[in-house]
């Protein structure tokens, strides 16, 4: 609990900014929904034949799960405030249209007739009788819409629109309960607070129409304006994945090593590449062998000071397996150094963008480096079980290994691809359920060995020294061997669009920091 | 004051009002009497164009109602309905000020007129800031009448104005209201199905059946010289039933 308050205190300004953005998002969309929903509600109350159609459409929109709705909107509107506002607006629409409609149509016909009887025009009947009498019901709709929006607005953090979802999702990504609560508690308080506040206004509007209306007319735009408050704006817009933003070897590492200070927009890591491609952000935190680097022509900034731990890939094998099949080790080691960053990026690109099968990619690659051999038709006596995690790069590596082993040895390969995350793969390996799988040195160091932060500082972050260290530790603790590194390093990295990086002459993170610090 | 000629109204196949002609003189109270569905309310509502006439003509104060815009016409004609027809969100003061405000009276004029009316209608001044829900049925009916009379209209139309009151209050309120000079000078057309009410209030009664006027004349004439058996039965039957109430 003390940790929680410490976290809140340390992040007070960020939290305040997120809260204000959250309120702003909620009310900008509410304002839009009122501007469209009220007239629409009035219209269908007069032309009842339109009512079922309009309410039906708004109702269907309401039932679309919020994540799915964002999914529909991202291709149309990209990321950022656009899809977040539209989604929130659509959710707020139904309660407002429906309650306006119900509020107006529930005014008793004898009152409407009395209003006509004293000589009110249709417009006067609407403004002096129907709307004031419908106001408490409309208010109830506004209340519902507000509470829905406070909740849905947390999803804005997926698409870099800010809000309290930033802490919630970062907290989830990092299993950091304090960070999660720092987002979740204010979001819950906002929902409860607005609900109570609007309930008071609703009661007030029942008794005094003028005060209720005035309060609504002033309050909603006022709260909307929070979204327009100027927050720190950098020369280049940064979009970081939630996990990267909070992980010690992510943004905090950059701050420490390079003194980089930016005001990042947090965004889902799969949308990040799309965002930089569409010029919605200029710098992203990515993985250095992602196929999208090639697809979107991105430039990975050099990390000369090694702020990011190296994530060199190499197969991790059980010592027992190596002993039983002596030709396995040398066979796998043929690949050492053959897969550089650019080669691996290209292979990922082929799978993700050219939709080639891992089998084709692996065969083409092996042919190119002269390692391809047609499997001999022999009796395969021994069996090795190979594992992989669930993402493209690992599928491709697994396929390369399979073809290599079948070409050079008499072993039979059983593939257990799709073993989920690191922990599952590692446990499978240790217990002997699999014989080997491709792993990354950084993961071995930080996730499996779970090194205390102190060791990280003393250990030089050079790829070689990290490799040597994990190899030695794995052997000692688990009798597992890291074979020779494949060559590429799938680590965190900062990347920019190549044309922009060239125009600004930024090649490294140092260069970026220098550029941002100049004439700011 | 009101001149109705060959008035007809059809709703689909049903003829609600069938070729009615009648005149109401200045200051006169005409009661449209009949069973439900006889066309009396439709006739009344065509006089201020709450319902558009199907055929024939109506003129009020010498001007054909069809020539005037509906809201403008209705502001010059008082209108009273069952239970007052008050707006729940208007205070009593606002309710009485409704029509004067629509036609642009100054606040001082409105205030003076309001005082005059609540005085005449014996409504306590403390009611002015109350809402209709806080009033008794009789009080609401009086406020409804005050609202109709506020802009001093030459003509007031009343649609079952005492229908929501219990028989005792009804008799009491109507005696009191129709005793007002204010109302005596105004031309009134009142719709009711209550024979004793008609006999008590009317200068003349128009007894309607199936969209037509069966007989029109002073109460005595209808009682003593009923034109048809229907008239005799209607007037004969009803008072006794009313007395039983």
From TrEMBL, chain A:
<keyword id="KW-0472">Membrane</keyword>
<feature type="transmembrane region" description="Helical">
    <location>
        <begin position="76"/>
        <end position="94"/>
    </location>
</feature>
<feature type="transmembrane region" description="Helical">
    <location>
        <begin position="50"/>
        <end position="70"/>
    </location>
</feature>
<keyword id="KW-1133">Transmembrane helix</keyword>
<dbReference type="Pfam" id="PF04069">
    <property type="entry name" value="OpuAC"/>
</dbReference>
<comment type="similarity">
    <text>In the C-terminal section; belongs to the OsmX family.</text>
</comment>
<dbReference type="InterPro" id="IPR000515">
    <property type="entry name" value="MetI-like"/>
</dbReference>
<comment type="similarity">
    <text>Belongs to the binding-protein-dependent transport system permease family.</text>
</comment>
<keyword id="KW-0813">Transport</keyword>
<protein>
    <submittedName>
        <fullName>Osmoprotectant transport system permease protein</fullName>
    </submittedName>
</protein>
<dbReference type="InterPro" id="IPR007210">
    <property type="entry name" value="ABC_Gly_betaine_transp_sub-bd"/>
</dbReference>
<feature type="transmembrane region" description="Helical">
    <location>
        <begin position="211"/>
        <end position="229"/>
    </location>
</feature>
<dbReference type="Pfam" id="PF00528">
    <property type="entry name" value="BPD_transp_1"/>
</dbReference>
<feature type="transmembrane region" description="Helical">
    <location>
        <begin position="179"/>
        <end position="199"/>
    </location>
</feature>
<feature type="domain" description="ABC transmembrane type-1">
    <location>
        <begin position="19"/>
        <end position="198"/>
    </location>
</feature>
<keyword id="KW-0812">Transmembrane</keyword>
<dbReference type="InterPro" id="IPR035906">
    <property type="entry name" value="MetI-like_sf"/>
</dbReference>
<feature type="transmembrane region" description="Helical">
    <location>
        <begin position="20"/>
        <end position="43"/>
    </location>
</feature>
<dbReference type="InterPro" id="IPR051204">
    <property type="entry name" value="ABC_transp_perm/SBD"/>
</dbReference>
<feature type="transmembrane region" description="Helical">
    <location>
        <begin position="133"/>
        <end position="159"/>
    </location>
</feature>
UniProtKB/TrEMBL annotation, chain B:
<dbReference type="InterPro" id="IPR017871">
    <property type="entry name" value="ABC_transporter-like_CS"/>
</dbReference>
<dbReference type="InterPro" id="IPR027417">
    <property type="entry name" value="P-loop_NTPase"/>
</dbReference>
<dbReference type="InterPro" id="IPR003593">
    <property type="entry name" value="AAA+_ATPase"/>
</dbReference>
<keyword id="KW-0813">Transport</keyword>
<protein>
    <submittedName>
        <fullName>Osmoprotectant transport system ATP-binding protein</fullName>
    </submittedName>
</protein>
<dbReference type="Pfam" id="PF00005">
    <property type="entry name" value="ABC_tran"/>
</dbReference>
<keyword id="KW-0547">Nucleotide-binding</keyword>
<feature type="domain" description="ABC transporter">
    <location>
        <begin position="2"/>
        <end position="235"/>
    </location>
</feature>
<keyword id="KW-0067">ATP-binding</keyword>
<comment type="similarity">
    <text>Belongs to the ABC transporter superfamily.</text>
</comment>
<dbReference type="InterPro" id="IPR003439">
    <property type="entry name" value="ABC_transporter-like_ATP-bd"/>
</dbReference>
<dbReference type="GO" id="GO:0005524">
    <property type="term" value="F:ATP binding"/>
</dbReference>
């Amino acid at each position: 609990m003390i940790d929680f308050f410490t976290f809140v205190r340390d992040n007070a300004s960020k939290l305040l900014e997120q809260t204000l953005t959250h309120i702003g998002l909620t009310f900008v969309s509410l304002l839009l929904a009122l501007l469209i929903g009220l007239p629409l509600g009035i219209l269908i109350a007069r032309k009842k034949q339109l009512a079922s159609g309009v309410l039906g459409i708004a109702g269907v929109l309401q039932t679309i799960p919020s994540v799915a709705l964002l999914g529909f909107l991202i291709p149309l509107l990209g990321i950022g405030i656009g899809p977040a506002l539209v989604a929130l607006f659509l959710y707020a629409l139904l309660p407002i249209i429906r309650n306006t409609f119900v509020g107006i149509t529930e005014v008793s016909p004898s009152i409407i007739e009395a209003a006509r009887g004293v000589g009110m025009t249709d417009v006067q009947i609407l403004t002096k009788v129907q709307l004031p009498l419908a106001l408490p019901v409309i208010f109830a709709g506004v209340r519902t819409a507000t509470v829905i929006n406070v909740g849905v607005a947390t999803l804005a953090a997926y698409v870099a629109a800010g809000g309290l979802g930033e802490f919630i999702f970062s907290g989830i990504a990092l299993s950091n309960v304090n960070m999660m609560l720092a987002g979740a508690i204010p979001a819950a308080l906002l929902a409860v607070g607005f609900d109570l506040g609007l309930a008071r206004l609703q009661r007030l509007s029942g008794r005094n129409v003028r005060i209720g209306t005035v309060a609504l007319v002033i309050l909603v735009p006022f709260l909307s304006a929070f979204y327009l408050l100027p927050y720190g704006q950098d020369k280049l817009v940064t979009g970081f994945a939630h996990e990267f933003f909070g992980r010690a070897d992510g943004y905090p590492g950059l701050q420490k090593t390079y003194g980089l200070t930016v005001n990042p927009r947090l965004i889902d890591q799969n949308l990040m590449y799309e965002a930089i491609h569409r010029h919605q952000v200029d710098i992203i935190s990515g993985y250095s062998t992602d196929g999208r680097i090639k697809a979107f022509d991105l430039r990975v900034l050099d990390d000369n000071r090694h702020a990011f731990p190296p994530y060199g890939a190499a197969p991790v094998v059980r010592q027992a397996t190596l002993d039983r099949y002596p030709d396995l080790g040398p066979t796998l080691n043929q690949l050492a150094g053959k897969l550089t960053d650019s080669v691996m990026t290209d292979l990922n690109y082929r799978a993700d963008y050219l939709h080639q099968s891992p089998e084709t990619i692996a065969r083409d690659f092996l042919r190119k480096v002269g390692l391809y051999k047609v499997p001999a038709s022999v009796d395969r006596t021994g069996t090795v079980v190979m594992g992989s995690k669930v993402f493209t790069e690992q599928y491709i590596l697994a396929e390369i290994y399979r073809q290599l082993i079948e070409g050079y040895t008499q072993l039979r390969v059983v593939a257990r691809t799709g073993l989920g995350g690191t922990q599952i793969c590692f446990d499978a390996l240790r217990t002997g359920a699999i014989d080997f799988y491709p792993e990354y040195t950084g993961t071995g160091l930080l996730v499996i060995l779970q090194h205390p932060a102190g060791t990280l500082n003393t250990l030089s972050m050079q790829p070689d020294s990290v490799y040597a260290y994990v190899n030695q530790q794995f052997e000692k603790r688990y009798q597992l061997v890291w074979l020779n590194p494949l060559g590429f390093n799938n680590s965190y990295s900062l990347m920019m669009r190549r044309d922009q990086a060239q125009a600004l002459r930024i090649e490294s993170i140092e260069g970026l920091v220098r550029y941002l610090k100049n004439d700011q | 004051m009101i001149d109705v000629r060959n008035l007809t109204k059809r709703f689909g196949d049903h003829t609600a009002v069938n070729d009615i002609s009648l005149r109401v003189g200045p200051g006169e109270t005409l009661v449209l009497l009949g069973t439900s569905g006889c066309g009396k309310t439709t006739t009344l509502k065509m006089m201020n164009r709450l319902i558009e006439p199907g055929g024939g003509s109506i003129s009020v104060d010498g001007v054909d109602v069809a020539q005037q815009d509906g809201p403008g016409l209705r502001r010059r004609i008082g209108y009273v309905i069952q239970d007052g027809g008050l707006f729940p969100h208007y205070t009593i003061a606002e309710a009485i000020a409704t029509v004067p405000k629509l036609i642009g009276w100054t606040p001082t004029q409105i205030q003076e007129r309001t005082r005059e009316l609540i005085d005449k209608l014996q409504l306590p001044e403390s009611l002015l800031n109350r809402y209709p829900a806080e009033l008794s049925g009789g009080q609401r009916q009086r406020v409804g009448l005050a609202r109709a009379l506020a802009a001093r209209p030459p003509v007031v139309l009343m649609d079952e104005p005492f229908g929501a009151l219990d028989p005792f209050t009804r008799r009491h309120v109507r005696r009191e209201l129709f005793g007002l000079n204010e109302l005596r000078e105004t031309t009134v057309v009142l719709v009711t199905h209550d024979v004793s009410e008609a006999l008590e209030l009317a200068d003349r009664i128009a007894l309607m059946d199936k969209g037509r006027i069966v007989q029109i004349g002073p109460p005595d004439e209808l009682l003593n010289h009923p034109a048809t058996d229907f008239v005799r039965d209607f007037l004969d039957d009803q008072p006794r039933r009313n007395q039983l109430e």
